[in-house]
Write a sequence for this structure.
């Protein structure tokens, strides 16, 4: 569908801008639920500063009659909630952008509408009801269902007194009535299906997928943006029987997770680049003792502390090469919520099957963005633990390299794992012969792992001339950009498994006249990996590394230079 | 009682020097396990790296020989996943108090039901004679040519300060005492530290068998280990080193028992989804 087919009134892009601690999140939370409850498709993403108060944060919300999964620069309505909320967004403001806010915030901006949120709030008893007024006004503008608005406001404040609930509801209704009279009428067609759908962000998709994959252990150390996966699993720990530990550091967390697998759990750690750097020795341990681990790594820009609350795909090389010595590994990078759910679940199955470290790479943009989704697909939990007897050998040499994995206490054998080079029993050895046998055994698993790859997905014309290549979170933004570009000679090949690079990918590359990589990092980590894997030219690279995700418009513009 | 040979590894190529204090400890450990009648597959020995950390290589029970300094996090996790197993983290003073110092502190805070045996020979053996966290100030080593110029780490005082639930010091040369204390530590419900003074006959010419005999004493029968102030006094008095149960706090909640999956169902996570 090209952009022209979308009527200007059937979709709206709203941006809320204000200071940290001011309630943007509350407005986002309620407004998106009101919109979804009214049957509108929604997409929301936020960018925020690494601070608890002040500064300037913003949330972008797209509300549409068709599914929306991507980020646009375009702002139809900008809501200012504080001073200095405008300047950082100036590049995104066009002549069509309506600016809404208190008179003192909107000033003399063209196309601005001054709304006295505070005054309305105060008429119901307190200035703090202004967020409810804003939600009401925006709900009115988009033509949301008034009853849904009332229900969501009531639910949100349910723990407060009756009086407070009532005041907020009334403030919202007044805002709603005002919103209907501002002359900004959108005509978004509601869909019954959407009302029953879930709202989910990237972090929830990863956490829910992990649970679907049988995850019952998480040890981690808080670090933005990966903490949300940890929080979600902790929140659900009573419902699903999950062992939780906030470890003293990432080193402890990772050694715990590996030992948890050794003892029979299915464990994950969630971290970001800096935390993962501390985990790398343990990743090597996982490789040596052939005890699985699942790592969720939510990327943010480095080096070092970098931009703690912003986004990048800059840790692929770190994950690819983490840990000393040679051992197999698997790296997934989901491109949307459904893939995140499926791959997080799959990570546990393949970790158990091949007894290797498995990574799920996301990023801040992916984790913090959310939209309505259909029910997640059914996934099966595959388990490979065997019962041991007295003759059990943990590292029995086998044809495919996989030694049956027992756990202590299940059967009468003893399960002996050793970070030193070891023989079949797990006993330390310096025999050159055994060393070679064991290295070969461990690496032999790569053949099966490679055959068991998640293939890349082609979007667009299979008879393409230009092949756009991407991995991870950029998928949906590129897909919409290609629709906008409207060039039938261009297709997208998206990788949700980045390592091993699925062998089938070679055929796609060979067919292309020109291959163009799009990545959110300064060097083109995946392009380098593909060149290493297939020895093909990967020099056309569109790279972004300023901490914000590629918008649909940026991709369209960059691709316009590359394709004819 | 079981026979100690139940825990023997046939043809084990032992990497310790003749006369090493580790030989005493391995016999004491096997004897304690045999007296407690633990089947090998019900016990997990978790170690880090170093000469002490080779212990599980020579004891036939489940073994998790992990990374230097990381025996405690691994042991905690194993206990979380399967509280029915007897979990012993065993490593040296460098591994436990140096590389793993942060884990030592936080494992004490957690109070999992594990036993932490630390071979304390006050020197690095496997890396050939450098100072360990417990080497005395002024001692000349293979690396500290002018003598050590930092104060030694006092594991007993730190453990008491952190209100560890069971704190023991013993000497590898005292067989009966050490067997008894290992058994008590394993039977204690909660985290138990056993700091075992142990000579390194190759690299520590100061802290010899004789030195330990001359510089230790056994706590009297009327000593009350639940008196924390007194325990701290004993712990910080390094003129002569006390052997025995120096401190215990029997009233601390056990870490794994408080975790979500065990609130209503005691079945170990490890066994819940087996075929």
């Amino acid at each position: 569908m090209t952009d022209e087919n979308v009527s200007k009134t059937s979709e709206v892009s709203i941006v809320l801008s204000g200071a940290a601690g001011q309630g943007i999140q509350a407005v986002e939370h309620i407004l998106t639920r009101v919109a979804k409850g009214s049957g509108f498709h929604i997409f929301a993403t936020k960018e925020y500063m690494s601070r608890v108060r002040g500064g300037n944060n913003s949330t972008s919300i797209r509300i549409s009659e068709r599914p929306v999964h991507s980020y646009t620069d375009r702002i139809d309505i900008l809501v200012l909630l504080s001073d200095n909320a405008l300047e950082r967004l100036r590049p995104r403001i066009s002549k069509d952008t309506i600016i809404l806010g208190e008179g003192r915030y909107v000033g003399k901006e063209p196309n601005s509408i001054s709304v006295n949120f505070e005054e309305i709030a105060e008429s119901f008893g307190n200035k703090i009801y202004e967020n409810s007024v804003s939600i009401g006004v925006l709900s009115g503008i988009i033509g949301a269902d008034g009853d849904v608005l009332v229900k969501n406001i009531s639910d949100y404040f349910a723990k407060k007194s009756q009086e407070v609930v009532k005041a907020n509801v009334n403030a919202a209704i007044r805002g709603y009535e005002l919103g209907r009279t501002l002359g900004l009428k959108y005509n978004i067609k509601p869909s019954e299906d959407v009302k029953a759908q879930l709202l989910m962000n990237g972090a929830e998709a990863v956490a829910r997928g992990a649970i679907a994959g049988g995850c019952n252990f998480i040890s981690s150390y808080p670090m933005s943006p990966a903490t949300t996966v940890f929080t979600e699993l902790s929140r659900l720990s009573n419902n699903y029987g999950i062992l939780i530990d906030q470890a003293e550091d990432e080193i402890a967390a990772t050694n715990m997770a590996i030992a948890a697998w050794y003892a029979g759990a299915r464990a994950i750690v969630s971290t970001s680049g800096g935390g993962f750097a501390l985990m790398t020795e343990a990743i090597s341990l996982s490789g040596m003792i052939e005890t699985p681990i699942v790592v969720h790594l939510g990327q943010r820009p480095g080096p070092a502390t970098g931009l703690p609350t912003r986004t990048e795909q800059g840790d692929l090389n770190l994950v690819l090469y983490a840990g000393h010595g040679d051992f197999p590994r698997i790296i997934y990078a989901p491109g949307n919520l459904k893939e995140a759910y499926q791959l997080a679940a799959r990570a546990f199955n393949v970790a158990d099957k091949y007894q290797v470290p498995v990574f799920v790479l996301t990023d801040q943009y992916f984790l913090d963005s959310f939209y309505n989704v259909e029910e997640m697909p059914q996934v099966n939990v595959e388990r490979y633990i065997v019962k041991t007897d007295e003759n059990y050998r943990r590292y029995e040499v086998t044809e495919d390299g996989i030694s049956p994995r027992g756990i202590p206490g299940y059967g009468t054998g003893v399960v002996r794992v050793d970070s030193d080079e070891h023989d079949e029993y797990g006993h330390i050895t310096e025999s050159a012969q055994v060393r070679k046998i064991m290295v070969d055994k461990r690496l032999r698993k790569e053949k099966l792992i490679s055959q068991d790859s998640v293939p890349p997905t082609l979007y667009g014309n299979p008879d393409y001339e230009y092949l756009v290549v991407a991995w991870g979170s950029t998928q949906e933004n590129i897909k919409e950009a290609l629709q906008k570009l409207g060039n039938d000679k261009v297709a997208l090949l998206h990788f949700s498994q980045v390592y091993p690079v699925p062998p089938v990918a070679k055929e796609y590359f060979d067919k292309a006249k020109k291959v163009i990589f799009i990545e959110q990092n300064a060097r083109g980590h995946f392009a380098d990996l593909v060149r290493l894997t297939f020895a093909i030219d990967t020099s056309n690279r569109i790279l972004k590394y300023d901490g914000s995700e590629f918008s649909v418009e940026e991709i369209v513009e960059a691709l316009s230079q590359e394709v004819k | 009682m079981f026979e100690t040979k139940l825990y023997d590894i046939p043809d084990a190529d032992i990497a310790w020097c003749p006369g090493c204090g580790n030989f005493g400890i391995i016999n004491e450990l096997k004897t304690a396990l045999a007296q407690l009648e633990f089947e090998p597959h019900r016990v997990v020995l978790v170690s880090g790296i170093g000469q002490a950390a080779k212990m599980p290589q020579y004891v036939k029970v489940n073994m998790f020989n992990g990374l230097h300094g990381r025996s405690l996090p691994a042991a905690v996790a194993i206990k979380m996943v399967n509280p029915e197993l007897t979990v012993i983290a065993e490593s040296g003073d460098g591994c436990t108090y140096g590389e793993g110092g942060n884990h030592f502190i936080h494992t004490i805070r957690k109070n999992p039901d594990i036993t932490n045996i630390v071979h304390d020979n006050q020197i690095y053996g496997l890396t050939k004679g450098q100072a360990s966290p417990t080497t005395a100030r002024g001692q000349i080593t293979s690396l500290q040519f002018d003598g050590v110029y930092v104060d030694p780490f006092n594991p007993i005082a730190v453990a008491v300060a952190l209100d560890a639930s069971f704190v023991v010091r013993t000497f590898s040369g005292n067989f009966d005492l050490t067997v008894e204390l290992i058994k008590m530590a394993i039977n204690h419900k909660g985290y138990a530290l056993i700091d075992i003074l142990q000579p390194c006959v190759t690299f520590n010419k100061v802290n010899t068998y004789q030195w330990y005999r001359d510089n230790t004493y056994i706590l009297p029968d009327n000593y009350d280990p639940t008196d924390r102030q007194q325990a701290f006094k004993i712990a910080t008095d390094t003129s002569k080193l006390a052997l025995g149960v120096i401190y215990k706090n029997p009233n601390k909640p056990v870490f794994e028992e408080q975790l979500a999956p065990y609130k209503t169902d005691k079945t170990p996570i490890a066994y819940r989804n087996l075929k």
User: Anything to note?
Assistant: The longest helix of chain B spans residues 21-35. Chain B touches chain A through 50 residues (CB under 8 Å).
